[in-house]
Task: structure prediction
Amino acid sequence: MADETRQNEVARYAAAVRAELSDLAMPEREALLEDLEDHLAEVVAESELPLASRLGTPEAYAAELRAAYGAGLRTTGGRFPRIHRLVGAAAAQVHGWSSVQAVREYLPELRPAWWVLRAYLVVLVLAVILRGDQDIHPIPNPFTSGGVVEIIAMAVAVVFSIRLGRWASRRQGAESWPLRAGNAVVALGGLIAVGSMSTLPGWVGTPSSPGGMPDAFAAGPISNIYPYTRDGKPLDGVLLYDQDGRPVTVVANGNGLITQYPTAADGQPITNEYPLSQTTVDGSKAMPPRVAIPPVSPTPSPSPSPGASPSGNH
Amino acid sequence: MQSLADSSQLLKGVLDLAVLAVLADHDSYGYDVVRRLRETGLSEVGDASVYGTLRRLYQAGALNSYVVPSDEGPHRKYYGLNERGRKALSESTRTWSALTAALNQLLDGGSTKNGR
Result:
């Protein structure tokens, strides 16, 4: 308990010192503050007295550190050093919270995961941009023409991203701002691309279906419906409606199929008459699938009614 | 208004030399340097001044540094003199000796002036 309050004291003091020096440019600031926590820990270990009574205020400590380090300190060159310091102080306040401290401790371990994710997002964003159509789907998708290319691009991007990450972390927190800006762009672009995916695996796309109707009742996108009678006769011109009387529609133009909707007397296309008449891109008619009709039981079993009990035991 | 006799002001000028001299003895980590300077009698030297000086000497290439993990307490970053540091120390020592010799003479009541 006492240990924890001392740790918090160190965190608070360190955060305040960092805030005072937040106007310094990055590599110098990190270099200057590298030993800070170690130093404070030593002082705390040595004496029960509060840090400030031994070292002076964080502001004084920062000023002394700055003076001793002396010339050669670059500032960030911001035009508003005062604002910079205020923002720094606010950030320091947040960093001082113990929960934030805990997260900051394990965050660096997640870096390699970010490198891989970053590579994936870059390829995803590039794929979306290069394909330029509405159909954003998860990659790599080996069943599309670009699948192999996507896999190769992914491998190359992952290797490159990891090398970039290792190089940057070897330079000890001196990640240059172009790299940071790049990271931000990739994260944002990836977020947008993932967010606008309409066909996640196991889902049926909804936004582009003609009736705007959700038709998510299957493992893959439904592009046509073939009704059969119970004894296996294919039906034609079946109109389907849902429980609310809305026409049931499907994602009719997936898989390279072109659908010709019949036209009603009022000139409107009938989008729920099944099976849909579809042709492939080369003009040939789409063949109905082979289906397995469940065998018909030889004796029709009428639903038992209380009045006609087969046992007849009265 | 700071007094001219403020010893911390005087110390600032020679802190580099003091830190180099401490490290010439043996490699040491920041807080140990602070402690050894205090033990020598430089009680006014501020912790942050020592740490800032160490960092500056390190950045200037006069020191090498390595981390020594420890089971109890924090990991410690040790500093030691490298070739450049030893050279800086011997040069500064010469300058310091010359300076103190001259100052001592001055402070001894202007014997040089009278002797001429």
In short: The CA atoms of residues 198 and 205 of chain A lie 5 Å apart. The longest strand of chain A covers residues 257-260. The mean pLDDT of chain A is 76. The first helix of chain A runs from residue 2 to 20.
